[in-house]
User: Which sequence fits this backbone?
């Protein structure tokens, strides 16, 4: 299904984060790519941005491939990187060396794909979301994607284009409402938690207050994040019942943690996503063609 085959409604794709749960999302969007399904725009949060960028670059399988290849490589991630660089996922190796040398990101395909791509970050000084339109690849593009996926405590604050940034999920975990405000009326929303999930208060808040004490507005956002997230789930449910969005989520909790060094776990979660993508394929086509 191409843009020319659809009605005039603007179609969007909303990808929440979830760290390695995002490989479920990667499996779904790979199926969508391979069946030539291209919405007008996509917005990704955290892993939704880090893995979703491969949709715009038309590279199915890439997110799984490099994560499995470097799962146990200390240059990519681990406690050594955290203690020596301040980032559990090595910023330079993961976001500049891999896409330039080892699993090359297709800059040209990304630049020429007309689908708009937004990454969501959190401004640590205000605690508010920052929505960055990324339609051409530069080194700064990679850094915006890295900022979107920079989890607190596991990442340093990133200073970029006048902002100080961390994980977009802190301020806007499921940016459906923002996308609707931009004019995308028909949205597929991919979640990484099953039906009925509700977020609880962050048990790591004492550590957050210790290490992020310079940013009181960020701490407030972190402290209230479960309330924001659950309200967003309610908004998504209302939009789903009203027919404004199609929601795709796993049937059960995904068998992987926020951090994983197990390629077999990664493959299993990706395969669950692919199976869900195949199962939902006709629903996606029908929804976008309404």
Assistant:
């Amino acid at each position: 299904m191409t843009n020319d085959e659809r009605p005039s409604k603007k179609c969007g794709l909303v990808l929440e984060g979830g760290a390695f749960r995002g490989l479920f999302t990667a499996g779904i969007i790979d199926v969508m790519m391979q069946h030539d399904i291209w919405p007008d725009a996509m917005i990704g949060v955290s892993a939704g941005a880090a893995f979703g960028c491969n949709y715009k670059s038309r590279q199915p399988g890439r997110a799984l491939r490099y994560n499995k290849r470097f799962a146990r490589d200390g240059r990519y991630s681990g406690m050594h990187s955290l203690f020596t660089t301040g980032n559990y996922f090595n910023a330079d190796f993961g976001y500049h060396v891999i896409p330039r040398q080892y699993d090359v990101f297709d800059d040209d395909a990304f630049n020429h794909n007309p689908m708009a791509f937004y990454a969501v970050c959190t401004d640590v000084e205000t605690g508010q979301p920052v929505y960055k339109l990324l339609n051409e690849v530069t080194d700064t593009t990679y850094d915006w994607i890295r900022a979107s996926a920079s989890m607190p405590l596991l990442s340093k604050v990133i200073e970029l284009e006048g902002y100080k940034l961390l994980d977009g999920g802190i301020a806007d975990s499921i940016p459906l409402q923002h996308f609707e405000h931009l004019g995308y009326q028909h949205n597929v929303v991919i979640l990484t938690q099953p039906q009925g999930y509700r977020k609880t208060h962050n048990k790591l808040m004492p550590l957050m207050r210790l290490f992020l004490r310079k940013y009181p507005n960020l701490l407030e956002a972190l402290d209230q994040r479960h309330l924001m997230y659950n309200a967003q789930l309610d908004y998504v449910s209302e939009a789903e019942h009203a027919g404004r969005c199609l929601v795709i989520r796993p049937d059960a909790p995904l068998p992987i943690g926020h951090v994983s060094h197990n390629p077999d776990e990664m493959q299993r979660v990706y395969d669950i996503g692919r199976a869900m993508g195949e199962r939902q394929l006709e629903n996606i086509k029908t929804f976008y063609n309404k």
